[in-house]
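Before relying on records like the one below, remember that each one covers exactly one chain. Contacts with other chains, cofactors or solvent are not represented anywhere in the record.
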Amino acid sequence: MALDDSTFARDISFPLRFDSECNLATDEDEEVVEQALNLITFLPQGTLPLFPDMGSTAVLTVFDPLDAGSKLSLDTSIRMAVSRLEPRVVLDKEFTIEESADELKIIAIIPYRIIVNNKSGAVRLTIPRPIGG
C-alpha cells in the first residue's frame, strides 16, 4: 500500500472501535497528533527498556516549584521529545504553562502545526502533582 497525504496522519483509533463498514476505525489529523503528544509527554523517558529514548522528562517537573526555570525545563523537555518522536508536527509557537488554582496540576497548552496539511491546533495537557508536593 502506497502512502499518500490521505494516509500520512491516520492511525487506528484508541480505544479500538469499528466504523459503519465494520472496519477498524481510524483517527485523523488532530486526534492522532493529540494522542501522540499525550503519550510522548506522559511516558517517562527510560521506562521502556527496548526503547530508552521513548518518552520525555516532563513528568519529573511535578516536584519542582513552577518558576521560570522549571517552565523552561518543561518546555525544552517536551520540544526535544516531540522533535525526536513525532515527525508529523512542528512546535513553532511558545507554550502556555501555568499552575492550577489549587496547585495540584500543571497545565500546559501546546500549539502545533501538522506538516503535511499545514493545519494548526493546540493540545491541553494536565500534569498531576503529588499531594503535599
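The chain has one domain: 24-128.
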